[in-house]
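STRUCTURE:
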């Protein structure tokens, strides 16, 4: 079988000029360079039109808003060059300033600009402290059909967002698996990225029951690994016992990984959780950046 290939050619990142959005921009630029992709940098803001505005003033307001958007796009371009330095000149960048709620705007731009990857931070100036119902990041993950790269500062390797020469690296990738099709899809994305970045890939299975012999479980994991994954890159299979979320988060921290790739199968809207409880716990507690791969059972085989 031909190896699965993740080659995004249009990468979208949303910025709010916070340090985390600067970090997201750096990661998005790394992806744009590696995949020879177009980079779409957008900023969204809500503009409230006074309900008492008169018809005669409406045209003047539209003119002022147009000027404001033009100035905002210039500011956005300056910001990107400040964060990326000379590297920005070597990228094909589209600057967009749009009006609307950030989550709605990101999803809309993602569709209209045909983005194949969204890169964003977990919180910004609005104070999103974690994944929770109503947060912009969660709304985007819930609403998009493309992978979302969720950026966080790694606790052991701080990246100076004020240094244009500081570039994030991806040398160690972790992908938790549980023998499902969603996990297989995520592992294919992880393997494709590992091959592109020449990174080391670890497939981690957690035996929550703790009743299976460790070597037997490892053999089962090796047999489960798809051929198209192992032909792309070397995969280190690891089996641990315990509560899945806790073990995955601890292993990601102790192993000093650069990226955690996880498959996410959405729950119906009436559920109190967005994904499974283990996935949500990892999303909240992960000490490293994550690539969240939405389940796509209808158009994926392997």
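SEQUENCE:
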């Amino acid at each position: 079988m031909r190896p699965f290939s993740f080659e995004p050619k249009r990468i979208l990142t949303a910025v709010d000029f916070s340090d985390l959005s600067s970090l997201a921009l750096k990661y998005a630029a790394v992806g744009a360079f590696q995949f020879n992709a177009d980079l779409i940098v957008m900023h969204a803001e809500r503009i409230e039109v006074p309900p008492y505005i008169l018809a005669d003033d409406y045209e003047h307001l539209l003119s002022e808003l147009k000027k404001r958007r033009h100035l905002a796009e210039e500011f956005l371009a300056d910001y990107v060059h400040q964060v990326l330095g000379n590297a920005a000149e070597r990228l094909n960048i589209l600057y967009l300033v749009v009006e609307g709620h950030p989550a709605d705007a990101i999803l809309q731009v993602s569709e209209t600009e045909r983005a194949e990857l969204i890169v964003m931070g977990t919180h910004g100036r609005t104070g999103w402290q974690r994944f929770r119902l109503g947060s912009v990041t969660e709304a985007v993950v819930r609403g998009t059909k493309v992978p979302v790269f969720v950026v966080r500062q790694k606790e052991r390797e701080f990246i100076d967002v004020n240094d244009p020469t500081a570039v994030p690296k991806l040398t160690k990738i972790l992908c938790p698996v549980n023998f499902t099709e969603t996990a297989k899809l995520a592992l294919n994305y992880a393997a494709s990225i590992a091959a592109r970045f020449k990174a080391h890939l670890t497939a981690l299975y957690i035996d929550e029951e703790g009743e299976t012999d460790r070597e037997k479980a490892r053999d089962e994991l090796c047999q489960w690994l798809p051929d198209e994954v192992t032909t792309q890159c070397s995969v280190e299979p690891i089996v641990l016992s315990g509560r899945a979320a806790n073990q995955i988060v601890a292993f990601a921290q102790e192993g000093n990984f650069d990226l955690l790739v996880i498959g996410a199968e959405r729950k119906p809207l009436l559920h109190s959780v967005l994904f499974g409880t283990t996935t949500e716990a990892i999303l909240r507690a992960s000490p490293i950046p994550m690539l969240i791969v939405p389940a796509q059972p209808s158009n994926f085989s392997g």
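REMARK: Residues 10-151 form a domain with the Rossmann fold fold (CATH 3.40.50.620).
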